[in-house]
Amino acid sequence: MIAQLDLIEYLERAPAPTPAPKRDPLAELDPLTLLPARPVQWERLLDRATEKSLTIMVCTMWTGMVVETLSDSELGYFFLYKDGEIIEMPRQTVFGRTVFLTLAAARRIHARAPFVILGSPGTHGVRLRFAGDADTVADPFASLIET
To answer: Is residue 95 part of a domain?
Structure first.
């Protein structure tokens, strides 16, 4: 005779299921996705750039005309204007990408992906980068005077 399987006894002896690990959505967040969208031509230029360093510049007296710069040892030096126009400038010896943000925009991004200060902050501007795991994060905007 075939033995009948007692489902209740079987389930009582089965190991408890392991809960799925909780995912931290901020840990998986690419901070670059928080930056303002840029024209396709600018994104293509960034893709070709060999210099990948990024600086965020927050200046309370920023005019808003130039929204980003790129200085690359191979491509050259470029300004991106708020209307999407890209202008090539004379080459520079300091390389990397600089994104200009308003204080309000920088604060919104900092709330989701913290910044750390590069150099000494002034009263009208501060240079930042996204914080890494080993960085101590403080309010990078404390020295700024809103105008």
So the answer is: yes
Task: Judge if pTM exceeds 0.70.
Answer: yes
Could you give the C-alpha distances from 39 to 13, 44, 60, 105, 119, in angstroms and in order?
60, 9, 25, 19, 30
pLDDT in tens, 22-54: 655 555 688 999 999 999 999 999 999 999 999
Sort strands 96-101 and 54-59 into parallel, antiparallel or unpaired. parallel
Rounded Cα distance, 131 and 88, in Å: 30
- The answer to whether 69 and 98 are in contact (CB under 8 A) is yes
- Kindly state whether residue 107 falls inside one of the protein's structural domains: yes
What's the total number of domains in the chain? 1
Residue 116 maps to a domain = yes
Any domain includes 5: no
pLDDT at residue 143, rounded to an integer: 73
What is the pairing mode between strands 125-130 and 76-81?
unpaired
Whether residue 99 contacts residue 129, with contact meaning beta carbons closer than 8 Å, is answered with: no
Residue pair 60/104 in contact (Cβ under 8 Å)? The answer is: no
Amino acid at 57: M
Instruction: Mention every residue, 6+ apart, whose C-beta is less than 8 A from residue 46.
Output: 38, 70, 97
